[in-house]
Amino acid sequence: MEVLEARLRALTSALGVLALGMVLLGVVLPSGDDDGYTSLDPAAPVRLSVPSLDIRAPVNAIEVGDDRVLDPPADVLDVGWWDASALPGQATGSTVIAGHTVNTGGGSLDRLADVRRGAVVDVLTRNGVMRYEVRRTKVYDKEQLARNAVRVFGQDAGDGRLVLVSCADWDGTAYDSNVVVFADPVGSPTQDA
Amino acid sequence: MTRKPARGLALLATGALVALSAAPATAAAPVAQADATALTLTVASTPSDSGSFSSTHDGDKESTSGSNAPALSAATGQSFAQAGTLAQDARTRVEQRLGYAEACAGLAGDGATVVGVGEGGCLTPGQNVRLNAATVDLSGLRFVEAEFLAGLDQQLQDGLAPVLDELLPALSDGLEQALTGLGDLGVFLDAGVIQSQCTAGPGTSAGSAQIVDAAAYVEVDGTRVDLVALPVNPAPNTHVVTDLGAVTQEVLDAVRTQLETAIDGALGPLTGVVDGAEVLAEALGQVGEGLAPLEDNVIDILLNEQVQVADDEIEVTALNLSVLPAAQEFDVDLLRAEIGQSHCGPTGRVGDPAEPEATPDPPAPVPTSVPAGVETAAADGGMGAAGNLSLAALLALAGAAGVASWRRSLRG
């Protein structure tokens, strides 16, 4: 009888240790993701990729001037991340990236207006890739963009969405409008995604 | 005793100054905002809209801007809607020091009644409105002679050899005549009313869309071919994608008679020897292949599009339509139409001058202009950092080579 009790105590102790170990393991190891995506520690963007349009462009930080103009990088092959907008991976605000459309071709975002709803957009950061899914595309003329500036670029609202901006509506001498693509954050793809 | 009135006066003056300085801050910050746009069209990347009607409440009074009775012609230069009624309205108010906003916008046919915001919508339906989403030009369809023969077995090719020089031009002519008679295909939306509405208040917002008696269809030679019927009260962000595959058979039926006549005429005495039905099937098959892009998704429609900007801010678009690039092969203008955009919020609380809230850091100013287009890469662009580095390296190399040559020449 004593032997049985001793064995039961030993078994209980072993199970207790095992349970404690599993709890500690759960704390230490990262949790798995059912959908193949995980959260991303916010970090500045390094590269933009829109596979469906064959867009791949380095990202540089850009500022809004005193005149409230956001100028993309002078190099038309690059795109610019507005440095007062959200970092990719942030849960609030909007990450704003602007790039050139070149009438004769060769601009980083020449084909942005062709992007389809649901298309994947990847933004590479030092902490990994943040993936977005295109929700909608809008074209604003200059007056409309100014009128809707807070709604498009405002940082007080938003769920970490991506806002891509380029130009549209070539009139023979200049571009009269902006094409704006809004994309929802999906997460950072794990290896399974 | 003389000091007390002076102190009292000083206190009053200070209080007045504080109240005066606080007043602009409290009055300037809107406590409720709403705006509405009945129709925005983007044809070939050129946007136009019906203007917006907006309402803002600063805690003391409501102010509005824009027109809440836009004419359809305001969306100029478009063939999307020739007749109909547009409506856009917005209203803000303050109750118990809290801001509230509501807006509605939409499009209906002639005879629709425009009602003010707050009545559950902007419009009650009249006649149906017909919207021209796309015009498909089929006149570019051609027979490719080499492909036509490749589809036939050798025996049939041999049988046709004596009349081939007449047959292929006759088929091309027959197809062209048939397509000319058929004319362009019109892709239409027909609806009683398409409208959205929204409300926003402290910490809350909601929106909805109403789409009555709406369907997408194609007109082929005056015959209506239905594509899809749209739901009346669609759930938020209901996605409808439609192709024009349903019209392929209509087009084939329309060209069949002309092709039959062409084949009979070209075969002449060979009619008894060569199987004309097989030749016709191959000809129709080639026309069908030419129409294949219409089987792809051509029209993309999002109903009751809702963007929850914040708890107390929402944007609703009743119908967002895009003609997709798949249709470009048939000279279709890429068109985007957003019908019935309502935007409500954000809202706030009328500031209490006795207990002014702490002033937060001012947010970074948002851009109002993004000049992201240039004519040529050389105008504003460059070769990129890598290109510049390469050029500098080449220049350095050339300079070094020059110095070396010069020194060699000195030694010589």
Automatic annotation (TrEMBL), chain A:
<dbReference type="InterPro" id="IPR042001">
    <property type="entry name" value="Sortase_F"/>
</dbReference>
<dbReference type="Pfam" id="PF04203">
    <property type="entry name" value="Sortase"/>
</dbReference>
<keyword id="KW-0378">Hydrolase</keyword>
<dbReference type="InterPro" id="IPR005754">
    <property type="entry name" value="Sortase"/>
</dbReference>
<protein>
    <submittedName>
        <fullName>Class F sortase</fullName>
    </submittedName>
</protein>
<dbReference type="InterPro" id="IPR023365">
    <property type="entry name" value="Sortase_dom-sf"/>
</dbReference>
Automatic annotation (TrEMBL), chain B:
<dbReference type="InterPro" id="IPR006311">
    <property type="entry name" value="TAT_signal"/>
</dbReference>
<feature type="region of interest" description="Disordered">
    <location>
        <begin position="343"/>
        <end position="370"/>
    </location>
</feature>
<feature type="compositionally biased region" description="Low complexity">
    <location>
        <begin position="45"/>
        <end position="56"/>
    </location>
</feature>
<feature type="signal peptide">
    <location>
        <begin position="1"/>
        <end position="27"/>
    </location>
</feature>
<protein>
    <recommendedName>
        <fullName>Choice-of-anchor G family protein</fullName>
    </recommendedName>
</protein>
<feature type="compositionally biased region" description="Pro residues">
    <location>
        <begin position="359"/>
        <end position="368"/>
    </location>
</feature>
<feature type="region of interest" description="Disordered">
    <location>
        <begin position="45"/>
        <end position="73"/>
    </location>
</feature>
<keyword id="KW-0732">Signal</keyword>
<feature type="compositionally biased region" description="Polar residues">
    <location>
        <begin position="64"/>
        <end position="73"/>
    </location>
</feature>
